[in-house]
Amino acid sequence: MKSAFILLPTLLASATTACVTAHVYLNNCFLSGDILSAQVFDNGVEVCNGGVEHDRASSDTEFCINGCQPGYSFCVTGNARTGTYKNGDVYSVTMQASDYQMNTFTCAQTEDVTFKGRSLRVA
Q1: Cα angle, residue 77 at apex, residues 75 and 83 outer, rounded to 5°
Q2: 120 has which bridge partners?
Q3: Which of 106, 107, 117, 119 is the most exposed place for a label (fewest CB within 10 A)?
């Protein structure tokens, strides 16, 4: 199964200056489920590293990864093109990808049928 690489950087100008970067991998295959995993860095420190799986996810499905430090959260929607990162009560950042590329791959095959999946690359 191929993985997609998504890089969603953003800067937040306020009383607290932050640089938040997320590396997100999304695979869609109806036979094995839709899997999203991510690493999130806040000012260069990894605060989230985990994933989540949904069966038959749509573009409206919200993926909220597990594996964040206490008080931190990261969720994406819109096929991982929109992300929301929260650093407890300190700040919340919404990230919007400006471009994406979709690739198809074979996620299962029988003698008569090939099942295709999708991987997304968002920038």
Answers
A1: 50
A2: 102
A3: 106
Let me know how long the chain is.
123
Q: Residue holding tokens 């998504």?
A: 6
Cα 67 from Cα 34, distance rounded (Å): 18
Q: Which residues of the chain have pLDDT under 70?
A: 1-17, 30, 98-108, 114-123
C-alpha 118 chain-centroid distance = 14
Instruction: Report residue 21 as tokens.
Output: 């970067």
What are the boundaries of each domain within the chain?
6-122
Answer whether 86's CB lies under 8 Å from 65's CB: no
State how far the Cα of 116 lies from the Cα of 24, in Å rounded to an integer: 21
| pTM (two decimals) | 0.70
pLDDT for 15-27, tens place per residue? 456 788 888 888 7
